[in-house]
């Protein structure tokens, strides 16, 4: 990659060995994502080994390890500080059924300069989604 990076996908990942591979497969696929940063938050399972195996195949993937679990907020801050992209994308590392198209749809308006942020509220958060939809006027 040459020039400044556009989009950095940050994944806090405490003890997510069973899910992180599926999430990485999706996060690394869209061309809009310039780097993926996994912040291991003191995992006691094979999370680090899984991410290291992926990192051997994908130069866009970076693993940051924390010696002990400091919480999701701290993991997000660590990831944001390490991100080289102009636009961060925060994702959970245990998404159920993540889709590449979903990531691309959320990234495109930001990268095109049409939005300053994207909020991804899945079907498992209906109250949050409804609250946001009441406050935001969606384009037709």
List keywords for this structure.
single chain, Spore Coat Polysaccharide Biosynthesis Protein SpsA, Chain A, 4 strands, 140 residues, 5 helices, alpha/beta
Mind explaining what this structure looks like?
The protein is an alpha/beta fold and 140 residues long. The chain has a single domain (5-135), classed as Spore Coat Polysaccharide Biosynthesis Protein SpsA, Chain A (Alpha-Beta Complex), CATH 3.90.550.10. Helix content is 39%, strand content 19%. The chain contains 5 helices and 4 strands; from the N terminus they run E-H-E-H-E-H-E-H-H. The protein has a 4-stranded parallel beta sheet. Strand 2, helix 2 and strand 3 (61-66) form a beta-alpha-beta unit. The longest helix has 12 residues, at 100-111. The protein starts with a strand and ends in a 5-residue tail after the last helix. The model has no long low-confidence stretch (mean pLDDT 80).
Summarize the structure.
This protein is α/β, with parallel strands linked by helices. The protein has helices at about 15-25, 45-55, 70-80, 100-110, 125-135; strands at about 5-10, 35-40, 60-65, 85-90.
Multimeric state of these chains?
single chain
Quote the distance from N terminus to C terminus. Answer: 35 Å
Enumerate the strands of the largest sheet in spatial order, edge to edge or round the barrel: 3-2-1-4
Q: How would you sum up the major sheet? A: 4 strands, parallel
What is the third-level CATH name, the topology?
Spore Coat Polysaccharide Biosynthesis Protein SpsA, Chain A
What is the number of helical segments per DSSP (H or I, 4+ residues)? 5
What is the share of helical residues? 25-40%
How many domains is the backbone divided into? 1
* Number of strand segments: 4
Output the CATH homologous superfamily: Spore Coat Polysaccharide Biosynthesis Protein SpsA, Chain A
């Amino acid at each position: 990659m040459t020039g400044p990076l556009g989009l950095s996908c940050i994944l806090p990942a405490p003890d997510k060995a069973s899910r992180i591979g599926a999430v990485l497969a999706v996060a690394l696929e869209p061309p809009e994502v310039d780097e993926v940063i996994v912040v291991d938050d003191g995992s006691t399972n094979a999370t680090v080994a899984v991410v290291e195996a992926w990192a051997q195949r994908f130069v866009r993937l970076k693993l940051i390890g924390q010696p002990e679990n400091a919480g999701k907020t701290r993991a997000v801050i660590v990831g944001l500080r390490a991100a080289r992209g102009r636009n961060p994308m925060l994702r959970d590392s245990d998404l159920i059924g993540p889709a590449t198209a979903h990531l691309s749809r959320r990234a495109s308006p930001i990268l095109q300069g049409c939005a300053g942020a994207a909020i991804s509220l899945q079907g498992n958060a209906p109250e949050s989604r409804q609250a946001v939809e009441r406050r935001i006027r969606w384009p037709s």
